[in-house]
Design brief:
heterodimer, A: about 240 residues, mainly alpha, B: about 250 residues, alpha+beta, 5-stranded mixed sheet, globular, disordered N terminus
């Protein structure tokens, strides 16, 4: 039976977040390509192996530096306010219980890894999310917060120099801004991959809100690309015996 | 891109406006896939967001916020990129144009023409500060010149003046500023760089320099400083870059 899974606020903020992240990453990479390096002029930077190598154009958005900056500085408000609405809702409505780490999560994560690596036959028992998935969803807001704070730090390195200083100065704040983006992109790409490879039934549920637990990865014993379809036709309950 | 529009509205965004902005931007972004610059309909929203950001940035602005060079940072020296919009390095040709002088005019009590020697007789500071380029790089340099606030005192700025336009002989390059950023203690009309007189590559004979503005706001090859009641756009801000360009 289809059960209510996502509140409409979660569904709306999810898709707004999707658009905001795509635009922020695309325009951010366009801005990055104007100076695809981290070193202060006249210095070298220790910790980025691709200094002065621009990212491919197809990853960028905004057309040119000014266009990308205008998109970046407009969409940042959407990202921040949308993120706050989501976090506020999850906190007030109790959904945080499905997301915060608990005792046993490390063990359960290890069991998930073993299951995906075919070292374990049956899907570990889980609640709304499996332990690996939960960890990813839990980490994403932190990466988001890091992206926002480092973003403010390189937007206003003089007016808010105290914030820039927390991240080690402008050059490092810009680096951490980049790293936060990489973390968000990696988590998002893995998330999308897993949706299609393990739980495609969760995609409609992010529109309708309803999810059939009989089709969950646990019920299907699904690994990436394994058991995408239910093992057997759903058992329809036998009609009640006729009264005689 | 056309003119950035009216920047005089300053204020926060209320919830209704935010929803309109957010909804508009999100749907605009959906429509944008075919055009990497984003759809034309988004331009209005982007300009709206820029106006709101201008309000936020001006509200954030403090004279007491000072740019400090990080401990251990190296000077850029000759690694400081030179920049101009003319086809070749703009050089003031004395034989054709006569002696260079900086004309200060507009809403002031004492309009003047200042030669380089006049500028050097005014109070002088040297600031070792960061250069923040719109492209994302920074460079540490020492800029020597007249604090803008001293120049403003000298020419007696009228209370109706709220903006300053810095104009150059580098084609039609100019950028106008809000007066408060110009009055920042680290804003100078610079004629020296790293202990030497400014060279043509970096804006000789004089340029405006401040760490509170992105590089493109710091007009090189100055010829005129005009105090104005309203903002007057700028070379890059008219083409789509933020007019405020504050750091």
């Amino acid at each position: 039976m289809a059960k209510k899974r996502h509140h409409w606020i979660v569904r709306v903020t999810h898709w707004v977040n999707f658009v905001a992240i795509v635009i922020m990453v695309g325009s951010g990479l366009e801005i990055f390509n104007a100076y695809p390096a981290f070193a202060r002029k006249g210095e070298l930077f220790c910790c980025y192996p691709f200094e002065h190598k621009p990212v491919p154009d197809w990853l960028t958005f905004g057309g040119w530096l000014a266009g990308a900056r205008n998109w970046h500085f407009a969409m940042m408000w959407v990202l921040v306010v949308n993120g706050l609405i989501y976090l506020g809702f999850v906190y007030l409505h109790g959904e945080w219980r499905d997301l915060v780490p608990r005792k046993g999560d490390i063990r359960d994560s290890w069991q998930m890894v073993k299951f995906y690596a075919f070292k374990r036959k049956d899907h570990p028992h889980q609640g709304k999310h499996n332990a690996l998935q939960k960890t990813a969803y839990f980490l994403l807001p932190f990466a988001g917060a890091l992206a926002v704070l480092t973003g403010i730090a390189i937007w206003k390195p003089v007016q808010l120099s105290w914030l820039t200083a927390i991240f080690g100065g402008y050059v490092w704040a810009r680096y951490w801004h980049f790293i936060a983006m990489v973390v968000i992109v990696v988590l998002s790409v893995v998330h999308v991959f897993m949706v299609f490879a393990v739980d495609p039934y969760s995609l409609p549920s992010m529109f309708t809100g309803n999810y059939d637990e009989n089709l969950s990865p646990e019920a299907r014993n699904a690994r990436p690309f394994y058991h995408l379809f239910p093992r057997r036709a759903r058992v329809t309950p036998a009609p009640p015996p006729e009264a005689t | 891109m056309s003119k950035p529009g009216n920047f005089l509205t300053i204020g926060g965004v209320d919830r209704r406006e935010f929803l309109a902005l957010g909804g508009g931007l999100v749907s605009a972004a959906f429509l944008a896939a075919c055009d990497s610059r984003g759809p034309k309909s988004a331009e209005k929203l982007l300009r709206y967001a820029e106006r709101k950001n201008l309000g936020v940035e001006r509200a954030l602005y403090r004279h007491t916020a000072i740019d400090v060079v990080q401990h251990g940072a190296h000077d850029a020296g000759n690694k400081l990129p030179s920049y101009y919009v003319s086809p070749t390095v703009p050089v003031w040709d004395e034989s054709a144009r006569g002696k260079w002088a900086l004309e200060v005019s507009g809403l002031i009590g004492n309009p003047v023409r200042l030669t380089l020697e006049d500028l050097q007789r005014l109070p002088r500071v040297s600031n070792r500060v960061n250069h923040y380029c719109v492209e994302g790089w920074t460079a540490v340099e020492t800029w020597t010149g007249v604090p803008f606030s001293e120049l403003a005192k000298f020419v007696r700025v009228a209370p109706e003046a709220h903006y300053v336009d810095f104009q150059s002989f580098d084609d039609d390059y100019h950028e106008s500023w809000d007066l408060e950023s110009a009055m920042h203690p680290q804003t100078v009309v610079a004629y020296g760089l790293d202990g030497k007189m400014l060279e043509p590559a970096h804006g000789a004979p004089a340029r405006v320099y401040s760490p509170v503005k992105l590089g493109y706001k710091n007009t090189k090859y100055l010829t005129k400083i005009v105090f104005m009641p309203k903002m007057n756009g700028g070379y890059w801000s008219d083409q789509g870059y933020e007019w405020y360009g504050g750091v």
